[in-house]
């Protein structure tokens, strides 16, 4: 179980939290599960959803580039140039989608490496408004604090 005040892991029969010193009297205050454990599933599912959105965007960009833009003549531009640019952009979006899927799956499976990958992606997501920014802020709020690191490490070891 975890202290509802600081999030530190405590034994079930503890009377005091080793992290913050809060006392637990029988029947009055019970420790609850930690903050990371309460929010981890939602963060993982949201990263999977963002990966799906990015995958759909990558497919749309690729299809537009390959099906429509290659047939438009543009003066002073080599043929199929826009198609190549759109393929490059679609590849970049596909890479971002794969990373989001991997981060979401890793969090749901409590993989040890997933927290750091998701934090890096969360920082980068701050630059992609509106959904990326919201998910980045939520991800950093859940996974960044030091207590979150301890709790996630405990979850990863028990998985």
Characterise the protein shown here:
- This protein folds into two domains: 33 residues; 124 residues.
- Helices cover 63% and strands 0% of the residues.
- It has five helices and no strands.
- Helix 2 crosses helix 3 and helix 3 packs antiparallel against helix 4.
- The radius of gyration is 22 Å and the shape is rod-shaped.
- About 4% of the residues have low confidence.
What key phrases describe this protein's structure?
mainly alpha, 159 residues, 63% helix, 2 domains
Task: Specify the helix fraction band.
Answer: 55-70%
Q: How many strands, what sense, and barrel or not for the largest sheet? A: none
Q: pLDDT below 50 for ≥5 consecutive residues: which ranges?
A: 27-32
Quickly count the domains: 2
* Beta-strand fraction estimate: under 5%
Mean pLDDT: 86
